[in-house]
Amino acid sequence: MSIQRRSILQALAATPVALPALTGVTASLASGTAAAASIAPKQANTYQVKDFGAKGDGKTLDTKAIQDAIDAAAKTKGTVIFDGGAYRTGALFLKAGMTFKVDQGVRLLGSQNIDDYPLLPTRIAGIEMTWPAALINVYKERDVKLTGDGIIDGDGKVFWDSYWAKRREYDPKGIRWAADYDCRRPRLIQLFEADNVRIENLSMYRSGFWTVHICYSQNIEVYNVIIRNNEGGRGPSTDGIDIDSSRKVLVEKADITCNDDALCMKAGRDADGLRVARPTEDIVIRDCIVRDAAAGVTFGSETSGGFKNVKVSNIKVYHPTPVGILFKSAQTRGGNISGIEISDIYTHHVPVVMRVNLNWYPAYSYAKIPAGIKDYPDYWKTLSTPVPKEKGIPQLSDVYVHDVKAEGGKTAFEISAYPEKPLKNFRFERMHLDTWSAGSIANADNFTFKDVTILSLDGKSVDVKQSTNIKGL
């Protein structure tokens, strides 16, 4: 591949319509004959996977050879390297002190056999349970670097298809909420109870499930990555970067196309999330592009442990993404969300600029086991454990949104909460929103608007209901 990654990111940031050029690069790599990188130079303290028996032909399962190279590198805090080619592999486990380098012209290609991803204790979609390992795992390790200009490709369509088959089976039975948990699919990268990990410069494609999952971890950096999950289809639940009950995380210069939340904060679901009670805190997300996703920046729906001290800045969100800024939860989630600053946001033909929905997707959010089903896994019981209403309604407060520009949207605000726990202390400053409708705000207290212009084509102002102390509208 002759195009330099940094130049791709700069070009995409300047001209969103440049996507066909990138798609062309993807297509050339999809053949399994990556534009051949020269043989990786052997340097001191490096471990070439072919020296451990890897074939790199895109067909042979190279898991053991690559893992043997990883284990050898870990003993000397060395670096694993690859010659150019496509390496088919199952789950890999990086170790403390090592570097895993996927250079330009190298493509890791995920196995399509779920048995190649061993089951491990983890958290998935808000509850602690056993789940298949990711393609790349930093599992209870520290001081790891995952780098290079190459590609990590989950080749996940077989897992997407299995999910849709499960949905077709479950939806008529009223157990849509169980499909995501019963259909086990591998994530692309999992950081679990990890410390001091950096992921940089990589391209990530076709994850079977979430792409980068940062869970119970700290001191994590994700820098200058491209995520493309809608190649050859639209992968369900293929979130971009999920920060889950973790702290001190920096995400910078991510360029994302996926089929669910692009940049997402999570902190546990319902009774299990309230039991764990671990917040997501001290998070910085900046200088990112979202081209196609369920939302640009998302808080939730897994809010049980709460979020605090989160700063999001300089995010560009493009159509067909339906929402720019999204807070979502449910009346069984609970959690306190406060200390959020969102700034320098640009949305282009994104229908809704900002949405707060605390009764999000009831068919998924509220797990109830039908009376006729007697035999089910233990985690169904976990999911359906009742949460008292006084603990279940989340509290959002102290949110500062400023310097936002929206062009060609449908609605500026779709914001509502519950009367017993209104949204509190929101500030909106320096916003210029060109939308068809100004939208609505309900169940809010102490909202302040300063230098906010809404060019609503329907000529109406924001519809405010059941709210107090709304200033500046």
UniProtKB/TrEMBL annotation:
PROSITE patterns: TAT
Transmembrane segments: none
InterPro entries: GH28_Enzymes, Glyco_hydro_28, PbH1, Pectin_lyas_fold, Pectin_lyase_fold/virulence, RHGA/B-epi-like_pectate_lyase, TAT_signal
Tree of life domain: Bacteria
Keyword Nucleus in annotation: no
Keyword Membrane belongs to the record: no
Pfam family, one: Pect-lyase_RHGA_epim
Domain Rhamnogalacturonase A/B/Epimerase-like pectate lyase: 48-89
Signal peptide: 1-36
Alphabetical keyword list: Glycosidase, Hydrolase, Signal
Family, as annotated: Belongs to the glycosyl hydrolase 28 family.
Protein name per its UniProtKB record: Right-handed parallel beta-helix repeat-containing protein
